[in-house]
From TrEMBL:
Residues 8-354 form the Major facilitator superfamily associated domain. The lineage of its organism: Bacteria, Pseudomonadati, Pseudomonadota, Alphaproteobacteria, Hyphomicrobiales. It is found in: Cell inner membrane. This is Major facilitator superfamily associated domain-containing protein. PANTHER family: 3-PHENYLPROPIONIC ACID TRANSPORTER-RELATED, BLL5896 PROTEIN. Keywords: Cell inner membrane, Cell membrane, Membrane, Transmembrane, Transmembrane helix, Transport. Its main location: membrane. One of its GO terms (molecular function) is lactose:proton symporter activity. It comes from Candidatus Raskinella chloraquaticus.
Amino acid sequence: MQVNTINLRLALVYMALFAGIGVHLPFFPLWLAAQGLEASDRAIILAVPMFIRVFLLSFLIDWGLRAGSVARAIIIYALTASVLTAALPFQSSMALLAIFSILSSLAWMPALPLLDALAMGEMRAGRADYGRARLWGSVAFVVLTITGGAAIEAFEVWVVIPILFAVLVSVAITAAFLPGDAAARPAGDEPRALPTLLERTRTVRPLFLAAALLQASHAVFYVQGSVHWKHLGYSETAIGALWMVAIIAEILMFLWSRRIIARFEAKSLLMMAGAAACLRWSVMAFDPPWPILVSMQILHACSFACTHIATIWLIGRLFSGFLAARAQGLYASLLGAANGVTMLAAGPLYACFGGRAQLAMAFIAAIAVVLTLTSRADPARDTGSAA
């Protein structure tokens, strides 16, 4: 029963966090567009937090660990983000709107890496199943994507901000029930943290870079996908359904994650993810008909979920305890840099080439495949578990 109880508490926070993401990713760009922002301006607003978190995220995660409770840190970050989000409709200039949008995104960025580190710690201790807890985040993403699209059709795009505010408050409420975390450590452990992280990740850095590039290859899809589909004539409900297909595929992959990790090494997972991403973006670049578009969305199970599972496998293999949280933060910073570049480029690419901009994302995924193929890393041989 203890496993089920801890899984439930973790799952509730994942649900709340991904409910927010399920509204923010597909519909916040539409809200920004309704405020008069052009594609390049929207891309900047969505990309800048990715760049800033390269430098800030590790600090914010360290602060959360020193605070003595991951739950307390998540509550503070979520409430801060909710206040900033609620203020967005009242900004009198585009500059203020951009500043508040960026600050609200930054405020809740540390929550997911902190929660992942806590969940991995519970999994290593045999008290939780990461995949089964995490999949409920994807379920919430699906639900909010569908209901969000329907809400926008019924009440117009202004409803995005109240929904985001509500789900961010729910993150704070559910985080209050998280289990105590072994990841928190006193500041005295910090001097050895970074050297240990760098040494333990030395042989697998190409794999982490490949994973970051694969996730970053989703940039045009994330930033301009909903706008492009709307331009093609799809309704908000249809757009929500396309996102739902992708996330259902992701859910199934997380449901089977324990078996997948037991059967495949990280390199194999990254190869599958890279091949799927190359195919997905190449086909979607040419605006395929609905049945093919749906099938490309199913590939999200590989292009996103396999990549995520591979990174969790690597971090779990390399580290435990507070070092796992710091490793999660360092990888998230690398991911932020890659996402920042591709999201910043997504606006101009889309403005120039429309849907063909996805071909640039296919090229990035191909680079990730080459990195994975040429990497000599063997995590099972080269790494152990560092506490």
